[in-house]
Amino acid sequence: MWLTLAFASAALLGLYDVAKKRALTANAVLPVLLLNTLFSSLLFLPVILSAERGLGWFDGTVLASVPGMPAAHGLVALKSSIVLTSWIFGYFAMKHLPLTIVGPINATRPVLVLVGAMALFGERLNAWQWTGVVLALVSLVLLGRSSRREGVDFVRNRWVLCLAAAAMTGAASGLYDKYIVARLDPVFVQSWYNLYQLGMMAVVVAILWLPRRRTTAPFHWSWAIPFISIFLSLADFAYLMALREEEAMIAVVSMIRRGSVVVSFGCGALLLHERNLRAKAVDLLFIIAGLFFLWRGSL
């Protein structure tokens, strides 16, 4: 079941990336991210009210939750700060880089999770899974070569560096998720971490964007913004429910979730008409092959 949930999360993440790219085009990054946290919080606000006030609105459903102790809220607040850091870097990179570059780079993020999972949780991969990891690394090397045709230098481009920072903090978040979900209810985690992110993001916008809003990129409303929150909330819910199962391996779940690149790449080609698709398609094939080997090794 955890594999099915991981693949569902991957498909939803692909749609999330497409909505994010649409919303960020010629738009101010920080207000878009603030609205994302706002809509995500509103989606789960009924869950919080039901649990904290004992209303029982979701009893007997997958959204049933319980109130948390102060220590639990501290763990969730830490998760919020890690994820928000990753998002800020990732949103700026998404705005300035083609989606057909961002998707494949993000698809290699689980390699960092793999190293951490082996060190922290004692997870071990079999030959099939190791083959999948190697193929993912090869795809990253090939992508670096093909991206030079679009003037994107992986070593010197600051938006690629932002994407790398997003990947590292995102990997740290994935490892922390494995730790926190083993101790807390996944619905409690997701509902409250959205709310904490909203508070943190409001402070960031007030300090970094509002004083400079007349001299930076202007903000304009896009209907893609609420869809960012919808797709992300559904993807995270499937992800956390997958991790709740005892046999779930964080390294494998994280790699499968990067299969979102198939959806984002297809939309980048068909809807956004991005360039250099033939070379990038070869990179994508290596990623898909890597995901297949990971799936086969998990059966």
Which helices and strands appear, and what pairs or packs with what?
Elements: H1 2-24, H2 29-52, H3 70-96, H4 99-107, H5 110-120, H6 127-147, H7 158-181, H8 186-209, H9 224-244, H10 250-257, H11 260-270, H12 277-298
Structural class comes to: mainly alpha
What is the tally of beta strands?
A: 0
What is the count of structural domains? 1
Question: Uncertain spans, ≥5 residues at pLDDT below 50?
Answer: none
- Tell me about the biggest sheet? none
pLDDT averaged residue by residue: 81
How far do the termini sit from each other? 11 Å
Net shape: globular
Question: Which band does the percent of strand residues land in?
Answer: under 5%
Number of DSSP helical runs: 12
- Note the run of SSEs as H and E: HHHHHHHHHHHH
Q: Provide the helix percentage.
A: over 70%
The Rg value, from CA coordinates, equals: 19 Å
Notes on the protein architecture:
The chain has 299 residues and is mostly helical. The chain is built from 12 helices and no strands. The mean pLDDT is 81. It has one domain (2-298). Helix 5 runs antiparallel to helix 10 (250-257). The termini are close together.
